[in-house]
């Protein structure tokens, strides 16, 4: 367990050594990922997932547990065993010509709707900030879909600023 407050507790998958418990935690994480990806699919058709993606993600999460390149933390209500949020974070690397070529990357942050606005996202984010600081990372990046107004407001409120625009074009 990482930290807790009066409403929530955090569990870092990498600090848990019981194999049976890890399987249950990964199952809970994949269930939350499903809800987040379903939300993103409602924003744009390109976020549609393929049938059975959960099995591949479960296998990847199990294989990557020993990696120091990833942070996987679940959020639980203080009085419950059903995960209500999570954060996935990692490191990204740019070309070595840049002074700051290694940076932190927040892959996913999700809080189930009925638990939003109660401080859980801040607990998860602070766990990631601590993890990145411990790894001597001084810059973080993330991506937000242009249509995700909730996400954009949240990240701006947390001090993140617009930095780049990702452009694309379909060839078909």
UniProtKB/TrEMBL annotation:
One of its GO terms (molecular function) is acyltransferase activity, transferring groups other than amino-acyl groups. Residues 11-172 form the N-acetyltransferase domain. PROSITE patterns: GNAT. InterPro entries: Acyl_CoA_acyltransferase (IPR016181), GNAT_dom (IPR000182). It holds the Pfam family Acetyltransf_1. This is GNAT family N-acetyltransferase.
